[in-house]
Amino acid sequence: MQVSVETTSGLERQMTITVPAERIDQDVNKLVAQQARTRRLDGFRPGKVPPKVIKRMFGSSIRQDVLGQVVQETFYTAVEQEKLQPAGGPSIEFKNDKEGEDLQYVATFEVYPEIELKDLAGVELEKQTADITDADLDKMIETLQKQQADWKEVERAAADGDRVKIDFEGFIDGEAFDGGKAEGHDLVLGSGSMIPGFEAGLEGKKAGEEFDLEVSFPEDYHAENLKGKAAVFKTKVQSVSAQELPELNEEFFSRFGIEEKELDGFKVEVRKNMERELKQALKMKLKDQVFTQLLKVNDITVPAALIDSEIDNLRRQAIQQFGGPDANIDPNMLPKEMFEDQAGRRVSVGLLVQEVVKANELEADEDRVRETVEEMASTYQDSQQVIDWYYGNDQILNQIKSLVLEDQVVDHLVASAKVTEKAVPYEEAIQPAQQQNDDAADAEESEA
């Protein structure tokens, strides 16, 4: 077998492989002999079909099967021989596959990048810290009450926090537009689910009132034909309802799986959940910051094949998230562009994390794995049963080990950086990093 490798561009390689005709003929004859013993043909006893008959009748398809097998075997042999690391499968182009002549084909594929890893030495990181105050706890309990609240119609004018049932139809320059009409639409005032000015225009209105709401669509509105346009919504209020919060009693506590009779005990359990969420939020923010900085100091080229594979994963996840596991939707219907940036980041981070693990010979710390499993199990009534289930399922346990190993990578990188701590309020601490960035950008635009 002869092998030659050419770098075509970046990470792409073209490998030309030549396989002697004798190898192909030998494999074809073996398969012909095998089928002569196993094929059943009219006029021949089982196992007594002459090989020349098999070759005459099925020789072409047998040869194609052999070529496919030979390509697969010789490709991976050649890859090992040339010490290459393919990132995804190759595309194969036959240069010569004539019977009786040497087989020659070209395999085109991408390889993993060679990474000269840089740590975060000298890089500045901000590590947020936060405490849960009694006010935070009270606000959380009020939020839980609102989630379980009932709505009762009232005769008074609508106020912030009320729910109004309305009919409306929107017009621009006197013409109705698509998607601007609804009947019996329930809207909670202050929810921010409508365009700016719409909800505020409903405050002070009573059931039975009809009026025009004059508002403007934002400049960044998702529909091109409505961006920045002034609109009039002819509106009628059908009803106004106020929230009735449930009492803080044993029946209410049980709705959240908490077996407590007194408010103090319920508060203890709620605070525990808040502490778990806070710990996870702060960890994820620091991890996101670390990986962002790691990408900045390590500018690597990523194989397109890996990005395409990750895009496929993100498509499937999106379908499952919004359509459920039984959704009959082709993931390929979702535009590739929706996921390219996220997929590129994930793949880049994954490659760099692997490099950190390899360079520092890191392994998942078993004590941290046990601690992580126990923390996950603590939210269940029979925590030991859950722990046993994790340790009895290798696939799930390996996922936990991967998460722990990733945390160890973050710890290793943080140790090389310049870290300053910043105390922030609880609500800011649990806000996702991306949302904080978006809010900061909005604030800068407002000031401008």
TrEMBL record:
It holds the Pfam family Trigger_N. Coiled coil: none annotated. Its EC number is 5.2.1.8. Keywords: Cell cycle, Cell division, Chaperone, Cytoplasm, Isomerase, Rotamase. GO terms for cellular component: cytoplasm. Residues 439-448 have a biased composition (Acidic residues). Residues 161-246 form the PPIase FKBP-type domain. It catalyses: [protein]-peptidylproline (omega=180) = [protein]-peptidylproline (omega=0). This is Trigger factor.
